[in-house]
Specification:
This protein has 345 residues and is of the alpha/beta class. It contains nine helices and 15 strands. The chain has two domains: 166 residues, Alpha-Beta Complex (Quinone Oxidoreductase, Chain A, domain 1); 137 residues, 3-Layer(aba) Sandwich (Rossmann fold). It is 21% helix and 26% strand. Strands 3, 4, 5, 6, 7, 14 and 15 form a seven-stranded mixed β-sheet that branches. It has a six-stranded parallel β-sheet with strand order 10-9-8-11-12-13.
Amino acid sequence: MDVTKEMVVSETMMAVRLHAFGGPDVLRYEEAPRPAIGPGEVLVRVHAVGINPPDLYLRDGYRTMPPEWQPHPAFPIIIGTDVSGVVVAMADDVAGFAVGDEVFAMVRFPEDLMKGSDAYAQYVRVSAKELAHKPVGIDHIHAGAAPMSLLTAWQFLIDLGHDAPNPFQSFRHEPVPLAGKTVVVNGAGGGVGHLLVQLAKWQGAHVIAVASGENAALMRDLHVDRFVDYNKEAAEKVIQDADLVVDAVGGANMERFLRVLKPGGALFLVNPLGFTGHDEARERGIIVSSTQVRSNGPQLQEAGRLLEQGTVRVVVDSHYPLAEAALAHMRAARRGIQGKIVLRW
């Protein structure tokens, strides 16, 4: 098809590819074909890539899932979803963007969940529907860190933005009013958690942040109303009568947060797998809800205005050259991460 102005010449690029599933050592920095764009798509020269948990799960082959659910892609594949960069080419049916625009996006998620969305690369093709202009005043590293975490927080707390079937429950996730309410965020120092905190504050909530003590200074900077260090005290023993708990951690014993909530409250689970407290929640009239984040350019554009205004900021734990993706994944597997890890050109 016809393509507008194009700034790129080479038909190849550098990328981080998988030829098999495994640990960080399977991430290979090598030459790969440059992607070709189709109708409605934009080619982005990548400046930064945010690392998210699905990157690690896919690299590992989702080996904790039942065998019938595990992916079987045609190798080699390129993983990653979150990018910030510059438009270098567009299909002729794309409007609202121009060659040279600085943009960011979460690419084809969850559509390419099991085969990779091609973000760990020098160039990536992106649907214009998933693309947003990069917020003015923040660099590519911070913009690249934002999309999945920011959209997750936005779709949980502000606006779901779609009517796709919910893979975690039979009903549609619905955000609840936050102004004047008491909101508890568990995992408040993490990539999603620190954005949940800021969006809840922006909406006028009284925010209680639960995280390790290493995050105390960050939580003060984010103006939380109360900080609970889970290494010193159990949230379910020191917090009462909250209106909403958002658990951004998951894992064992999520049911404990039901004790924190007043009757009629809500418990939002970013990772609901393993939650067993539905009967207790029903008895107390507590809504338990989850959803899966989905790519959405208009939502990212709207949320990006908060980054542009400084109302919300993305915390970057560390950043690595793309060629050192294996080291970045090793860092991502350790505890004590504050905010996001980013790959850069």
